[in-house]
Amino acid sequence: MERDKSNLTRRAALKSAAAVAACVFATEATSNAAPAPATAQNAPADRQHLWFKSGEAFCSAMVHRAPGVSGNLPGVLIMHGLVASKDQPHRIFVALADALAKAGFVAFRFDLRGRGESDGHSIDATPKRDLEDARAALATLSKLPGVDAKKTIVMGMSWGGTLACYLAGENLAVTRVILWSSCPRDNETWSPIMVTENNRQICDQFGNVLSKAFYDEVPELTPQSQLKRLRQPVLLVYGTRDEVTRPAEFDKLKDELTFADVSCTSVVIDGADHALMNHLWEQKAIDETVRWLLHE
After folding, report:
1. Global pTM?
2. Is the confidence at residue 63, as pLDDT, over 70?
3. Which of 81, 170, 249, 285 is 20 to 30 A from 239 in CA distance terms?
4. Which residues of 244-281 are buried (b: 16+ CB within 10 A; e: fewer)?
């Protein structure tokens, strides 16, 4: 996909305007003026925004690490749901990444193309393209300074869990897998309601438009088989009131993984829905995830 030149021009213009504004601010500043906005040089030490290339486009990412910590640390790649973003609802991934950094990990959360701040449009998303983004994100995380490329954890919520399974099946450097509200199965069929717009069949997902082409690829996916290939330990976190997947399905997944000699731990959150839309549910998911990583 060719990068939109108009976006490049617009971004360059904004950067130029910001530079001019900064110069004017510096010239007119007084002793009681408000502090200047953070720049790449004086931004908070525990967070870093970056762009990485996937295909011919760019994805937006945020890196969280504890300031002042030296040595190579395990990296955790965090992947969002189908039409979510690197923040997820109620900034749950921000809180998760902060907690992971405090516990001694380098957390890396990013937007798939067409979601969040990344290039592209959701209507052009396909499972293959999302997997391309996930692989590019993992490669980027592995090359960051201070990251142990041989000790990577992949974490996915909902659709992000499917992507995590594929990365686990492909890469010996992935040592553990975390699935939140994610119960991936092989050769699934998703049949959402479609409408025709501009001679193209589409599905509206909470204001995000996905095409029929996305759903046509889903039955080709085999995430559960991928998860069994290298047998990394797996953590399942899910709620008893998940409106997408019933608890019995998660129990079945755990049985399947255990039968395949995959160490699988479950954290069941009573009353929680699919997106963990409650502060107590969110906190339990984060606390149990960090505890499992530190003691697994």
Report:
1. 0.85
2. yes
3. 170
4. ebeeeebeebbeebeeeebebeebebeebbbbbeeeeb
